[in-house]
Model the fold of this input.
Amino acid sequence: MFEEMLGRWGGQLAILGTVGAAMVLGGIIGLDRELEKKPAGLRTHMFVAGTSAMLVGLSDVLLDRFTIQDYNEFLRTDPIRIVEAIITGISFLGAGTIFRAGDGEGIEGLTTAASILICCAIGIAAALEQWLLAVGVTIFSILILRGAAWLEYKVAHRR
Done:
């Protein structure tokens, strides 16, 4: 019984570690958004990446439970469904950051919505233990957020 409990805790600790790592990676992007005073910042991005990683981790547990037990002949599992559900929920959250600018001419928040979505994907990648991909995309995201902002500033001041 004790070994069984340790086995279950070990799996939960692994998911917990993955969620923590995903939160750190999402937080790196969120910090950029926070420093730019955008509607979704550090905490939001950390929660998005962590939630994505947790849901994928839990889907692994569900898949294991329902494919090992007697349900196997009655139940067909599709791990893509959990990813679809995560993307749908996160897209709704991202849409909430998009709003019309004060003058009515422009729209603001699109980059923040996109950064929320990429944090979602980073969380999924972390949960699937695709660490090179998760860290690499985090780095690319920061380069894009910072590099594009610098480039936009240079082009705007050149005119």
